[in-house]
Design goal:
Layout: E1 17-21, E2 24-27, E3 32-35, H1 38-41, H2 50-62, H3 73-86, E4 90-94, H4 97-112, E5 117-121, H5 130-135, E6 152-155, H6 160-166, E7 171-176, E8 179-180, E9 186-187, H7 192-203, E10 206-210, E11 234-237, E12 248-252, H8 254-257, H9 273-285, H10 288-307, E13 313-319, E14 322-327, H11 333-342, E15 345-346, E16 348-350, E17 354-357, H12 365-380
Parallel strand pairs: 3-15, 5-6, 5-7, 7-10, 10-11
Antiparallel strand pairs: 1-2, 2-3, 4-12, 8-9, 11-12, 13-14, 14-17, 16-17
Helix pairs in contact: 2-9, 3-9
Bound molecules: pyridoxal-5'-phosphate.
């Protein structure tokens, strides 16, 4: 390994960006790229968005940090907007998705008054710190770190029966994604989330929905559980909320929030004023028209991908602007991502065979068409094994 000074936690692409504008990024050599990755579902409004930047700069010119020991009107404004958009009541701000889930796990246990078991799903991803890692249903992420936090179990994603069978008198919550982003862009079967809501209500268990990746408009609804017309007891989100500044969000029902008192949880940086300024603007920008546009762009892109009729593709799935393309056996999604990068497009992967396409909400038909023709040319060159 060449010494870079960085701990070797990422195998990085050999490209360095120096600037960005809208859906475009520019590397050190001035080469232009179109961003279909969005910093892993983060920069939904693209790079350098003028309205978001203006709010951020205004806050930077005032102050960057004073701590959560003092009243913050912008935090309260954002919390009220999030309550309105989620159907829930009270928000805790942190800095990342994993922290948002840690808070959810702690709040659930506090509410449970001794009940501590949490049921999660196989292939789910909830983060890298110990609570959320223990909720994560992918053993490859546990390797070398066990023992995990006790009380977590994992059942087949999409199966209500499997959850039913795991419930014990100690069960306090179920944590689930509506679309397993890291796990392969696996969309929950229709009715699953609604059935979970009913089951949780019946058994007096909390339903925690992890919308770290799917929330904040990515699927064409503000929160993706809104496709099933339900409200969970806790929702977590992060990635897209501040368009690239670090912010984690845990929104709870009044019943859960009633159990939380000063000192029960906290974060020095959580709800940082600059990130909150960006988030207040992001939430305002995500009006009904913008959400419809995201859903429409997603349908256009999925239809166009189907229309390519490529034998190398096994399955296309997703909702709105989170789309997974699964290739037939032997085709490496990493290799395709690398070829797309060489040709000026950033995309993500989910495991060895799934390409994760996460365009910004401001993408236009022109860029979609450019992507599709490059993608087709690259995939057509790959022979089927
Ligand atoms: C569904 C989900 N939950 C939690 C996380 C963890 O978020 P973070 O990397 O901000 O800690 C991720 C990150 O990919 C995610 O997709």
């Amino acid at each position: 390994m060449n010494y870079s000074g960085l701990l070797n936690t990422y195998s990085r692409y050999p490209v360095e960006f120096v600037s960005g504008n809208g859906p475009f990024l520019y590397d050190v050599n001035g080469k232009e790229y179109i961003d279909f990755l969005c910093g892993i579902a983060v920069t939904g409004f693209g790079h350098n968005h003028p309205a978001i930047k203006s709010e951020v700069l205004k806050q930077i010119n005032n102050f960057w940090h004073v701590s959560n020991l003092f009243t913050s009107t912008p935090q309260e404004e954002l919390a009220k907007k999030l309550a309105e958009r989620s159907g829930l009541n009270y928000t805790f701000f942190s800095n990342s998705g994993t922290e948002a889930n840690e808070a959810a796990i702690k709040f659930a246990r506090k509410w449970g008054k001794g009940r501590f078991e949490i049921i999660a799903t196989e292939n789910g991803f909830h983060g890298r710190t110990f609570g959320s890692l223990s909720a994560t249903g992918q053993p490859k992420f546990w390797e070398g770190y066990e023992p995990l936090v006790p009380g977590f179990s994992h059942v087949k994603f999409g199966s209500i029966v499997a959850i039913h069978e795991k419930i014990t008198p100690n069960t306090v919550a179920i944590i689930v994604e509506t679309i397993q982003g890291e796990g392969g862009v696996n969309v929950a079967p229709e009715g699953y989330i609604k059935a979970l809501r009913e089951l949780c209500t019946e058994k007096e268990i909390l339903l925690i929905i992890d919308e770290v990746q799917t929330g904040i408009g990515r699927t064409g609804k503000f929160f993706s559980y809104q496709y099933e017309n339900i409200v969970p007891d806790i929702v977590t989100t992060a990635k897209g909320i501040a368009n690239g500044l670090p912010l984690g969000v845990t929104i709870c029902s009044k019943e859960v929030a009633d159990e939380i008192k000063p000192g029960n949880h906290g974060s020095t940086f959580g709800g940082n004023p600059v990130a909150i300024a960006a988030a207040n603007k992001v939430v305002d920008l995500l009006d009904e028209d913008q959400l419809k546009e995201i859903a429409q762009l997603g349908t256009t892109l999925q239809d166009a991908l189907h229309g390519l009729n490529l034998q190398q593709i096994k399955n296309i799935r997703g909702k709105g602007l989170i789309i997974g393309v699964e290739f037939t056996e032997g085709i490496s999604s990493k290799e395709i991502a690398l070829k797309l990068l060489e040709n000026g497009f950033l995309v993500g992967t989910s495991g060895d065979s799934v390409l994760r396409i996460l365009p910004p909400f401001i993408i236009t038909q022109t860029e979609l068409m450019k992507f599709l023709s490059t993608f087709r040319a690259i995939v057509q060159e790959i022979s089927i094994k």
